[in-house]
Design a protein that fits this description.
eight-stranded mixed β-sheet; 46% helix; 12% strand; globular
Length: 406
Amino acid sequence: MTPRIGLALASGAPEGAIYQIGALRALDEALDGLDLNRLDIYVGVSAGAFLTACLANRMTTAQMCRAIVSPEPGEHPFVPETFLTPAFALWKKSGLAVPRLLWEAIRDYLAAPGERALGEVLTRLSRALPVGVFDNEPIRAYLERIYALKGRSDDFRRLDRRLVVVAVDLDSGKAVRFGEPPFDHVPISRAVQASSALPGLYPPVEIDGRCYVDGVLLKTLHASVALEAGVDLLLCINPLVPVDTVRAVEAGLMRHGRLVNRGLPTVLSQTFRTLIHSRLEVGMAAYRSRYEGADVVLLQPRRDDYAMFFTNIFGFAERRLVAEHAYQATRRDLLARYDELAPTLARHGVTLRRDVLEDAERDLWQGVGLEAGAKRKAGGRGRRRPVAVHRLDEALRRLEELLERA
């Protein structure tokens, strides 16, 4: 009987998507007997939903890597700025509502001044806050263009592989599996838009009269969707782990480890990472006992991978570095766990190639057909760099010093 193999990808915003692309490319090269475009089931949440939809649509890992840094003929390049388009329409709508809400608040207070405190009444103004900072409609339009290319589809029902995109119904708090009846009529691009609508950042996405938000609210991976489908082997990638700056300081890679000094965005990022990662650990432990006949392989960054945590991926060069960093980090992880993973994968007809993992000269960009000239156009330096992390560490160390002086 042919083993059933699935893939589950977690959330992670644009930087998480780029990390997962590098990790997927490393898997693609190191695993024999496995075609990442022909798995039995794909399960994605948020950024992971975008990537699983691409794989189910036969977009190769090489194409994804090239799309990060270089416009490919006939393709739409991955532009992270698409994910951070200000929601001007929402802001305008909220601003127009302020006079009415303020009048209603004052009216209620004057109607019964002894019964309500003015501050309590003025909380009515909180309704004027926009439900999202960024507009996710450009994300849907971008995905629609990608899946409209020849040989692809924006319709779950037209795919020859099973794809499940998980979101959360805002009003019920329950998970919804787009791609399965009765939600398989929803366009893939719309489902991914809903799955990545993180509350506060993006507005909820309305589909058939219901509002949906990011699937990460309930689970980090939703790996149980694939396990319930009866897979024998499930590959999982989670790009978000809380950073451990103590180790970075001890190794001399950072002068100070206080994240609070880096401001609110860094504190919120660490908080979010900690919450979803602790929940992931609980879920993985439950999977081992609940689905004893299935093997689950989880790949994720190390907790001292501060290079991933502190990198801004909105420049071409940074995108290239993050993808290559993920590629090399995943290769090192696979090699370090070779004795554990090789027998597990072999049970399902998949060979983990030690020779590929031990090849120190292997380069992500050369492997996907980007030569030095193409890398220069993409913002790189045009030289082969088998291991980019050392240069990235040095750049981040200099940035750390500059920030401290400032």
